[in-house]
Specification:
This protein has 16 helices and 13 strands. With about 450 residues, it is an alpha/beta fold. It has two domains: about 270 residues, Metallo-beta-lactamase domain (Metallo-beta-lactamase, Chain A), CATH 3.60.15; about 90 residues, Serine Threonine Protein Phosphatase 5, Tetratricopeptide repeat (Alpha Horseshoe). It has a seven-stranded mixed sheet, with helices on one face. A six-stranded mixed sheet has the order 8-9-10-11-12-13. Helix 13 runs antiparallel to helix 14, helix 13 runs parallel beside helix 15 and helix 15 runs antiparallel to helix 16. The chain starts with a helix and ends with a helix. About 5% of the residues have low confidence.
Length: about 450
């Protein structure tokens, strides 16, 4: 059983992440008396209370049963309550396995505790089922490994009838609704459920006032905060930072995130929370300042930065989301969807713009040749613009699309974040499909 707290302390104190900090092992580690964490996607933090096991999240549909198996080796106590830190499918998808475990033992289903907006989220997932499957395939399609489980390949799905569902049919909606705050007692232990907007609008964090434990959900993910995601609904960086400040004020001595390593020590936890809050506050302040000066979105994106020293910290690296995307979400929150360029208020279709640019340049082949040249000299941002123009102008030309795929593969390899890698790999696949289709003709 790995000592997660010792590992966490060493990495934070040294500033060097010399081994993975976001692990998907489905293995259980005890982190305090009657407290365990199963590292999965997401983790499941479990407290053994006097009334049974209280689990924070249930992991994903493909891993829920493995988490339950690990927990059952640790404790045979019934599942008393499942606390949804928020309604993302990697946190609620494994719910059915927990419920089934109780039912098999002749016990009632566990209580399901969640914020009132979780139900609204589930309704939206059902309304936009195929869209959510599509964007997750694209988001996670640029990497290989454990994250692929979120793509929910029908061959790997534990419940074949649910294979086309983004939200599994056995995910139970909250039976105990929390609004902004709810205090309760389980056994003889007081708990406080706090709502805060951050990655989502339905997020809960839980405070154990006697034990000084804090279950933080995705407010801390051991990556730069997921406050930008280019394919998902609004994130809330202002409120995210404010919630982290509230957490610091509680002076927690043990922090239990849903991704990454648990953290111990009041000063160490406060430092981590402050670093994340300060980075978000800096992005918000500088973005809004430029908005107030009349700057457009593209100029702001290229101006507002997080210092490299901050991004090198083991819990701040932009391996999932990126500061640039957070800037765009700040703009969206306060400024709407128009980016400030008049031509993009009511734009032409992409293929019309591409055809005209190709005409002016002397052909799509000229554009794509220049795109490859730019990419090979490191100007990948500009190269991708030209590659897209060429691809739109010549949608069926295998030579153009073979080169476009190469440009986007170079772009993918140069990017640090999973989100960028996934989207750029998707663009490469688009052109690879054109090349493959030409070979079949």
């Amino acid at each position: 059983m790995p000592d997660l707290l010792a590992l966490s302390s060493r990495i934070i104190d040294s500033g060097v992440a010399d081994e993975p900090v976001n692990r998907v092992t489905n293995e259980l580690s005890e982190v305090a008396d009657d407290l365990a964490m199963v590292e999965s996607f997401s983790h499941v933090v479990t407290w053994r209370s006097a009334e049974g096991l209280v689990c924070f999240d249930t992991s994903a549909v493909n891993t829920g049963a493995k988490v339950v198996e690990a927990l059952r080796k640790w404790s045979k106590d019934p599942f008393h309550a499942l606390v949804y830190t928020h309604g993302h499918v990697d946190h609620v998808g494994g719910c059915g396995a927990f419920v089934e475990s109780n039912v098999r033992s002749g016990l009632p289903s566990p209580h399901i505790i969640g914020h009132r907006h979780v139900t609204r989220r589930f309704d939206r997932y059902q309304f936009t089922n195929d869209w959510n499957r599509f964007i997750n395939q694209r988001q996670f399609g640029g990497v290989r490994g454990e994250l692929d489980m979120l793509i929910l390949d029908t061959k790997e799905h534990p419940n074949k009838k649910d294979a086309r569902l983004f939200l599994a049919s056995d995910v139970v909606r909250p039976t105990h609704i929390v609004d902004d705050f709810h205090a309760t007692t389980i056994g003889d232990e007081p708990l406080e459920f706090h709502h805060g907007r951050g990655e989502t609008d339905d997020h809960l964090w839980t405070w154990f006032p006697n034990k000084k434990w804090l279950a933080s959900g995705d407010f801390i993910i051991w990556n730069f905060p997921n406050a930008g995601n280019p394919q998902k609904v609004q994130r809330w960086p202002v409120e995210w930072a404010a919630t982290l400040r509230k957490m610091i004020a509680r002076e927690p001595e043990l922090l239990l995130p849903a991704h990454g390593l648990p953290i111990e020590g009041k000063e160490r936890i406060a430092m981590v929370l402050d670093d994340i809050a300060s980075a978000l506050e800096k992005l918000v302040d500088e973005t809004v300042t430029l908005m107030n000066q009349g700057a457009n979105l593209v100029d702001i994106v290229h101006t507002v930065k997080v210092p490299d020293a901050t991004l090198r910290k083991p819990y701040m690296r932009p391996f999932y989301d990126e500061p640039e995307f957070v800037v765009r979400n700040i703009w969206r929150q306060f400024g709407g969807w128009w980016d400030g360029a008049a031509s993009r208020l009511k734009p032409s279709r992409d293929h019309e713009v591409g055809a005209e640019i190709a005409h002016l340049a002397g052909g799509a082949d000229v554009l794509i040749a220049r795109a490859v040249e730019l990419a090979e000299t490191g100007n990948l941002r500009l190269a991708c613009h030209l590659a897209d123009f060429a691809g739109w102008a010549a949608p069926d030309d295998p030579d153009v699309h073979e080169a476009r795929a190469r440009v986007y593969e170079l772009r993918r390899k140069a990017e640090p974040s999973l989100m960028s890698k996934g989207i750029f790999r998707s663009a490469s696949r688009e052109s690879e499909a054109v090349v493959d289709a030409s070979k079949k003709r």
